[in-house]
Amino acid sequence: MKGYDAAASAAATAANWRKVIAVDALMGLAVAVAGVVLVFVWSPFGGVVLAALGVLYIFAVVRRYRLFKERRRVAGLDD
C-alpha cells in the first residue's frame, strides 16, 4: 500500500492550490497555538507535545508547498 504522495496530489494542479496550502498551514498554526495555551492552562507536557506537533505539521506544509510549486512548474502552470 502506497502512502500519501504530495507530488502526485491533484490539489497541486488545482487553480486554488495556494488556498489549499494556506488553509493547511492555518490548521497547523491553530494546533501549535492550542498547544501553547494548553501549557499554561492544563498540562505543560501535553501542551509542549501538541505545540511541537503543530510546528512539525507546518514544516510538512512548507515541504508540500515546494513540491506543489515544482509540480506546477513542470506541468507548465507557472503563475
Count of the separate structural domains: 1
| Main sheet: strands, sense, barrel | none
Q: Count the helices. How many?
A: 2
Q: Give the C-alpha Rg.
A: 16 Å
Q: Return the average pLDDT rounded to an integer.
A: 90
Counted beta strands = 0
Outline type:
elongated
Strand-and-helix sequence, N→C? HH
The helix content is: over 70%
Low-confidence stretches: none
Structural class: mainly alpha
Strand content: under 5%
Spatial separation of the terminal alpha carbons: 34 Å
Question: Can you describe what's shown?
Answer:
- By secondary structure, this protein is mainly alpha-helical.
- It contains two helices and no strands.
- The protein has one domain.
- Helix 1 packs antiparallel against helix 2.
- The N and C termini lie far apart (34 Å).
- The model has no long low-confidence stretch (mean pLDDT 90).
Features:
79 residues, mainly alpha, 2 helices, 71% helix
Q: Strands, helices and their partners?
A:
Elements: H1 17-41, H2 44-74
In short:
This protein is an all-alpha fold and 79 residues long. Helices cover 71% and strands 0% of the residues.
